[in-house]
Amino acid sequence: MRSDAPDVAVILLDRWELMDRKLDGRWQHVGDPAFDRYLTGELDRAVAVAGERGAHVTLLTAPYTHRAERPDGGLWPEDEPGRVDAWNRLLRSTADRHGATVLDLNRRACPDGRFAWDAGGVRLRSDGLHFTPEGVGRWIAPWLLPQLYRIAVKGG
Fold first, then answer.
1. Band of the pLDDT at 154, cuts 50, 70, 90?
2. Which of 14, 109, 139, 149 minimizes the number of CB atoms within 10 Å of its CB?
C-alpha cells in the first residue's frame, strides 16, 4: 500500500471465511455470533489497512459456489447460500461503518440468485469455485473495471 499508493483497493474474501473454523476451542462458522464478531474485527482491520494511505476501499460480495458434492449428494457447508448471504451481510455492514463501497460480484456471477456455471453466454466457473479466464475477460472484468475506474476518479 505504501509503495503503490492506489486510488482504489479491492478486497475479495470468501471461501475461507465461509468454512467451519476452530475458534476459542470450538468449531464455528459465519452466522454464529462469536464467529461473526471475530470476522467483523478481521474485516475492520482489512479495510483499515487497505485504506490507510487514502485508497477508497471497495469490497466485492462473495459469489455462490458449488465446489463438489458431499458423498450424500448435498452441498458442503461453505457452499450453502445461507452462509454466503450471512458473509455478504457482514461485508455490507463493514462497508457502511467505514464508508467503503460494495460491488455485488455475487449478483454478477449468479444473476438468477443461485449458483451458476454460466452467465451472459460465457462459461464462468471451471470447478464451481474459480472463474475461468473467459469468464473473467468477457463477463466479470467488463462489469468490474468501469466501476473501479469511476470510484478512482470520483473517490468513492
1. confident
2. 149
List C-alpha distances in Å: 147 to 33, 40, 62: 33, 25, 17
Sign of the alpha-carbon dihedral angle for 34, 35, 36, 40: positive
Of 34, 49, 43, the residue nearest 61 (C-alpha) = 43
pTM over 0.85: yes
Residue type, 100: A
d(CA 116, CA 66): 9
Report how far residue 62's alpha carbon sits from residue 85's, in angstroms, rounded to the nearest whole number: 8
Q: Which three cell numbers stand for residue 24?
A: 476459542
Q: How confident is the model at residue 88 (pLDDT cuts 50, 70, 90)?
A: very high
DSSP classification of residue 123: E
